[in-house]
Write a structure and sequence with these properties.
Blueprint (H helix, E strand, L loop, with lengths): L1 H15 L2 H20 L4 H7 L4 H8 L10
Length: 71
């Protein structure tokens, strides 16, 4: 039941995210992964350095979640 509700929540978030935001999230995620690969770091290592959970970092890298930037 938890896995199903998680999938439904993910689907709802995707629907609510505009296509433009989704494409930008994917692009940023690809850039993060390229930088991580170049540095030869694992997702776990970068997540720890960024003080994020491994799961959240993975979703950011896959473009499944957008991030908030503060200036």
């Amino acid at each position: 039941a938890i896995r199903l509700s998680s999938r439904i929540a993910k689907l709802v978030r995707r629907i609510l995210m505009t296509e433009r935001e989704h494409q930008l999230s994917i692009l940023i995620g690809e850039m993060i992964r390229a930088a991580r690969d170049e540095l030869k770091l694992s997702q776990e290592e970068v997540a720890e350095l960024a003080e994020l959970s491994y799961g959240h970092f993975g979703r950011l890298e896959r473009g499944e979640r957008s991030m908030k930037l503060y200036t």
